[in-house]
Amino acid sequence: MRPTHTLRQFSLAAVALFSTPGAHALSIMEIQGAGHFSAFHNQAVTGVEGIVTALSATGFYIQDALGDADAATSDAIFVFTGASSPKPAVGDGVRVAGTVFEYRPGCSSGGNNLSCSSSNSAWNNLSTTEIKNDDNIARLSWSRVSSGNALPTAVTIGNGFAAPSAISASLGGSIENNPSYHFDPLTHAIDFYESLEGMRVSVSGASAVGATRQYSVGSSAENHELAVMADYRTGAQLANARGGATIGPDNFNGQRVLLSSNLIGTAAMPQARVGDTLANVTGVMDYSFANYKLQLTEAPVLANGGLVREQASPARAGQLSVASFNVENLAGNADAAKFNGLAGQIVTNLKAPDILALQEVQDNDGATNSGSTDASQTWGRLIDAIAGSGGPTYAYAQIDPVNNMDGGQPGANIRVGFLYNPAVVSFESMSRVDAGNPAWNDSRKPLAAVFSVNGEQITIIDNHFNSKGGDDPLFGRIQAPQLDSELQRIAQADVVGEHVAGLLAADPQARVVVLGDLNDFQFSAPLARLEAAGLSNLTDTLAEAERYTYIYEGNAQALDHILVSGALAAGAQYQVVHINSEFTAAEQFSDHDPVLARLTISPVPEADTWAMMLAGLGLIAAGRRRRS
Question: Going by fewer Cβ within 10 Å, which terminus of the chain is more open, N or C?
Fold first, then answer.
């Protein structure tokens, strides 16, 4: 359980000396309250006492030395001074007066705005409680009453005290300042972290469930973040074999904690992979960019977990190997290291599949908005790099998009396309799938390609569905999160599903593969639409904890899939080859892991052959009846 206390370090007898007309003499805990929004928002307060625990560029954190014995109320608060104002030192005991304010991170740069347009990505952020200056309500002031104090003991997440797995109740709207919302840190992770807002927190047994990621802060600054779970992932419902935490239909791992280097600098943040562990993880709990984050105040110590890249199992004789790989904005003018790195992964880790469906292939000049959509240089450089790495000399098949009509980086003309080994398969034809359908507005148009293997045909549809950008965040103020982007993916799945259904109606034994970066989970509505068209998702053949191709904020999830028709499902082998998503940006050649299927292409019997087979089965059955 979180430590609780009944005494306070400082007397409030001298509060009147610092009072402001109309101000309230309050403790930090009273200001914070048990909820996501202070009851004292836009009110003057005085005599707020605490020990300075951390300094930021725009203010400082203070924490009551002993707390109030209520685990639902935070014992700490942020004091916003602005970048140029003097600040106390860590360890100082201070007394603060000013205006209580709920600040929505990202809505303004000055800490003075709670509201912003719904078109602003910060609109859905929870607010954070602070004390600041407001000339119309109460000016900010602070005084030092002692120095060199021991810092309040950090609350330890771990050893039986951790966030619940469930993130929040489904309220159907904002949970801020909402009397219908039941604030419960024991049940919901979003409330658990709110009850620690601003407080000193440590994480025991911190295990990295994502790799260290780099983010820009402002125009030039950089911040590194790392998702961890306490107690070496003890609380993870779907702890996977490589050290991560996989999501499920009702499990988005509320126990994850994001560590931030904002206060210690990027050089002090370890460059961790999934499965690495960290000691000395201590900081103050903050919130920004729709996530609670532990702003580290000390440099953690990294222990290498020994993660290595996987290699695919080779295809057996008679099997066709088909892979899907999002190559993350591969442009014709990219550095040679990008092409060589991808080539090495395709040859060594993927074992040079017979057919390779790619997504995020850009044109020759990448993000330069030249008006040209030609990607022959992009394809040619990749093919040469693969051959130079000991792989086959692939051929490619694709269709150039209309300039700036398919989403992605402006000018880059992102697309899907195929590499195939002409020594194994023959390319027959290719077309876009209902390219004029509104479902593909500002999105990649899928390609349906027909290949033949030893005279037997297979249709492969390469997709890159609409991204999940624009969906509500897991730790946003709108609960449950609304998935606005899903509507377009459902429409896209319906278009592809109709195409597949038409192929199967014409030939129930048609060999059809639908694959790509579908930007959604195996349990999502868009994937259900594809399965309803007569396809089986090979992702479902994996153990539930191993269903992931991508890691976002520590959540391992499957966005890339291969689905097959009934004629290919029997005996199909499937593997996610983990070579990118669990590694740092410096080690990645894409942010996705490729997926690989090994399929048996058996000749389809002719109609008279089917009749003879059925007659033979009837004779065998009759013989068995006579012997019984």
Answer: C
